[in-house]
Design a protein that fits this description.
The chain is α+β, with helices and mostly antiparallel strands. The chain contains 23 helices and 18 strands. The relative contact order is 0.11. Keywords: Antibiotic resistance, Carboxypeptidase, Hydrolase, Membrane, Protease, Signal, Transferase.
Length: 608
Amino acid sequence: MRTAYNRWKKSLLALLVGLAACSSPDQPTGTPTAQDVRIRYTARRVVLPDVPQRGRILDRHDSVLVATRPQFLLQLPGRPPLDTLALGLLLGWDSTTVRRRIAEALPYPAARPGYPVQLRLTKAEAERIRRDSSATVPRLTLTERQRRVYTTGAGAPVLGYLSAEAQPFFRQARRTGRGRFYRLRNGGVETYYNGLLNGHRGYLHPLLDAKGQQHGTWAKDTAFQQGQDLHLTLDAKLQAYAEKLLGGRKGYLVALDPRTGEILAYVSAPVYPAATLTAPDQAGVRAELLEHEDMPLLNRPAMLANPPGSVFKLVNAAVALQLGAISPATGFRCDQSLVSCVHDHPKPKSLTAGLKYSCNPYFYQVLRNVIDHVPDSLTQDTVAARHANLARWRRYARSFGLDSVLGADMPREAPGFLPTPAYYDKARRTRGWTYRSIYSLSIGQGEINLTGLQMANMAAIIANRGWYYPPHLVRGIGKNGPLPRFTVKRHTLIDSANFAALVPGMVAVLQRGGTADASSLADVGITVAGKTGTVENDEGDDHAAFVGFAPADNPKIAVAVYLENAGFGATAAAPCAVLVMEKYLRGSIAPKRKRWEKRIQNRARNGY
């Protein structure tokens, strides 16, 4: 009985729906229902004719770095052999330049004869081809098309590439073991802000009857949006200068404005020209970069996390001060039975002296006071106390933005690492591990790993006495400011007074007797606060590190430098950092440091 009733109910419902459809007026009132759309109207999507122009990329001083412009490409004839002498005379190139440009365009040195080669030309060179090529060098083909054009060679990992123009690079990369890795991590702001740079066309969504008359819309119309310009935080001149200091060496340099989190310079070395990954005549250069043992295409400041070495003593000192494990006046004996100390120095009678001399035994004892402290309630359980203290240390250290991504505006960012009690339980295969088995944390070695962005941000936090804005590369999108998350101030768990207690020791590092006294800028009236680091490396020469900011009393720039296999932080990393500080704050380098500057740039060119 119930089955028959349900069948009758469905039939009646279908009849009512049909009657409603037949009785609908020709001109409907209000928004058409879904039934109306299905029975009486056709949904269309109309593309408006205007095509958005991709936005430009400009530096912090509004110098155009990347824009869509005409690019002139010269197709060389495959056979018979090209008269390179005549081509050079036509273009105004010497024979060395002709051979080099052709070699750079070939995907591998032994490319087959007749392999198609395209060369980028300037507008003036293109005009010479149009006037004289038929008689001088026949069968040359000149084309002009709109492409992304780089006006600077600096800032390759920041600027990145338009994916559609990087397809030849992707194809080359897929043939190497590192292909997928590089494809995902080199896009820069071109990839990260692609939608905003591209803009979008306008779309209408009309409902049309059989006569083509419109009856409302089936979706909200989309307004035409021109591509937005990106105004970077980068200082193009400072970026180019910093790249000259690192050149072919392995490492990174990150400079921030600590007051805003804006990245002033961002160098991943070895460096390469910004247009390399998309230029049609750079296949040979790309092949070398993909296979190079130093991995120049690795975006080091964001993706490579390394032990920070002695610069991490700043974090340990701040946490120890906050937890009451030490005071600024605390002194410790330089007891080398605990850990070796490479510096010959007086007894560090205070935190300032400990930082000035970078005394390893001093900071061994600083962190021991944190980890081995046993509250009265846990007198009988030192293992539980040690676990709780390490967890608490990690919680305070993580508030610096460590062991997590900072959220910078780039395609990929590594989180780094801070060990947990559970990590050591597993690694040591016992819950009963002791401080002696993890003391390397006290000098920034062992299991700690930080990225270059985190190192620079750490310096900015100390400069600000405990707060930071997330590091970012874009300060303006069109006529608007940066993405909202970059305007939210973040605070650490450390009191400002405890950060202030670090600064005298950091200033002393660059004064007489400090580990980096040779890098002082006192002669030009700039007081630098910094910390050197020399990172032990079992596989070769030690790595050199430095973090700092200037001026010490009113910081305007914070810098982190990390040079792989370069030795001491004081002699390798600190000079690069202070030169960038001086260049930014003064606009030039004092004559006293010109010879120093030239020596560093020569080493950078030679890659050591």
